[in-house]
Design brief:
Pfam families: GFO_IDH_MocA (PF01408), GFO_IDH_MocA_C3 (PF22725). α1 packs across α8. The relative contact order is 0.16. The chain is α/β, with parallel strands linked by helices and 335 residues long. It starts with 5 loop residues before the first strand and ends with a strand. It contains nine helices and 15 strands.
């Protein structure tokens, strides 16, 4: 473990921060959580006491002004990502921003430009792709063992319909299943295929009682060579969290593709003419690996595994998916 630590500030008391990212930073080789902020000082103090965080702030402004903070993690509602990423960058803080990166690709471009101008590192919090099993999956694909890729299918659904006050159910706050969980299979397909898609077609269920956000969506994202991602995502459905890569000679199934619990989160299955085998890697906290990746980039030891321009590209696909769902049309994705 390094004696030098990246000092983190947490902008908001979101569940993902408390349950996953803060523990991940503490499990990392590089990070320490120094402060947490909420617009409600009492809430910040309660969370800080519960999680043994030294400093609590009653405003985000106070946290990013703290000279003892090197980097901030932003788990705020989606419509606030742009503002606080830019403000943090202007204060000289490096940024790990929760997915979806922004409301649209134009916002994402502004965020990336602001961080480049400020000379700070910026990363999107797609934790799953830092897990070493994805390196192994990519290696299998590149080896040709499952042949040429013919298609990818991803599913990420859960049931949050009863929580009507949740920001995910507010259109003005960037709510909806495409924003919240649809971004995962989109990101995974782009990562595994190593190319950008050409068009998207999405059918969605918009719920009036949930702010008219998409509570369920099914999509087709077209890549070159006739290859496609088919996916479904939802916030009013039974929990699923899977990915399948289909090749001409075999397939790869990832049962816990994005959210990966310690007891089952590092295995996957490969099926070929030789049979079906289980593969796995030693469990590693993907949130810790994500924190280390940013820290090493901050210290100039390594480049980010995923530069922030990747977030712009993912948002372009999401923009097309949202437009398609709204217009019931096939949408060309700009390059």
């Amino acid at each position: 473990m390094s004696s030098v630590k990246l000092r983190w500030g947490i902008l908001g008391c979101a569940g993902i921060a408390e349950k996953a990212v803060i523990p991940g930073i503490r499990q990392s080789e590089t990070g320490v959580v120094t402060a947490i902020a909420s617009r409600d000082l009492n809430k910040a103090k309660e969370t800080a006491a519960k999680l043994d965080i030294p400093t609590a702030y009653g405003s985000y402004e106070d946290l990013i002004a703290d000279e003892n903070i090197d980097a901030v993690y932003i788990p705020l509602p989606n419509h606030m990502h742009k503002e606080w990423t830019i403000r943090a960058a202007q204060a000289g803080k490096h940024v790990l921003c929760e997915k979806p990166f922004a409301i649209d690709a134009a916002e994402a471009e502004e965020m990336v430009a602001a961080c480049r101008l400020a000379g700070v590192q910026l990363a999107e919090a797609f934790m799953y792709r830092h897990h070493p099993r994805y390196d192994r999956i990519k290696a299998i694909i590149r080896s040709g063992e499952i042949g040429e890729i013919r298609g990818i299918h991803g599913a990420f659904t859960f049931n949050n319909a009863a929580d009507l006050s949740n920001f995910r159910n507010q259109r003005s706050m960037g709510g909806g299943s495409l924003y919240d969980v649809g971004v995962y299979p989109i990101s995974a397909a782009r990562y595994l295929l190593e190319q950008e898609p050409q068009a998207a077609t999405v059918h969605a269920f918009f719920s009036p009682e949930h702010g008219d956000v998409d509570m369920m969506a099914s999509g087709l994202v077209e890549f070159s060579g006739g290859v496609a991602l088919t996916f479904d995502c939802g916030m009013w459905a039974s929990f699923r969290n899977t990915l399948e890569i289909l090749g001409t000679l075999g397939s790869i199934e990832v049962p816990s593709a994005f959210v990966s619990p310690p007891d089952s989160g590092s295995h996957f299955f490969v099926t070929t003419s030789e049979g079906r085998r289980e593969e796995g890697t030693t469990y590693e906290d993907q949130y810790a690996l994500q924190a280390d990746d940013l820290a090493y980039a901050v210290w100039g030891q390594k480049s980010l595994r995923f530069e922030p321009e990747d977030a712009i590209a993912n948002m372009k696909v999401l923009d097309a998916c949202l437009q398609s769902a709204s217009e019931r049309a096939r949408i060309i994705i700009p390059s």
